[in-house]
Amino acid sequence: MLIKTIASSSKGNCYLIDDNKTKIIIEAGISTNKIIKEVGRLSDISACLITHEHGDHSSSANDLTKKGVTVYCTEGTASNIEIQYFHRIFIIEYEKQYDINSFIIKPFKTFHDTSEPCGFLIYSKETKETLIFATDTAFMEFYCKANYIMIECNYEKNLLENNYKNNVISSRQYGRVAKTHFEYSRCIDFLKKCCTDNTKAIYLLHCSDKNFNKMFIDNIKNMFNTEVIALYE
Q1: Is pLDDT of 156 > 90?
Q2: C-alpha pair distances (Å), 221 with each of 36, 203, 214, 227
């Protein structure tokens, strides 16, 4: 399974997933022109999966549907993004399975300050591999053994508290991060439940420049003995 990061930050998010038979993208937080530059023809993209309605994850959803790409998202997400081409919106529900050519996707509940956010379990019938994708979530209740894990690891609680006490971040930033994003120790607990000897790569998403320490990357590498790719905000 090929995983390509097209964009991953608070400015915009988009990822390409390709199993040599089907191509899908996760998130639509950058312009379609930038997406086309990285993936080629949009007609080759079977679907776009969107986790929630915030602009850095959904801003080009309408343009994608206009150009013929089907967007998969929850009803709560769909009701909060501007969409004109409703026939290109496919409403998904937590814990149900959906076939997208050679991929089977299963959305699961995540916890963010949006109406109905979700993560995705993605299985390829072509490569027999499994991917878990979850970002912008304070907690995780869904666990599954996986070959690839893309999980938010935004901050470490002691660093966040020290930055707040030292006026590096505002009280508003402190409160929102703590309530809506995934913390390092929670990430470790999640990985312990999902990693096996067959886990090929862990992607740490939305790592904060201020509230995350690069030594955590080595800790995770040593703990799980696999490739770790850290993507910063």
Answers
A1: yes
A2: 33, 11, 11, 7
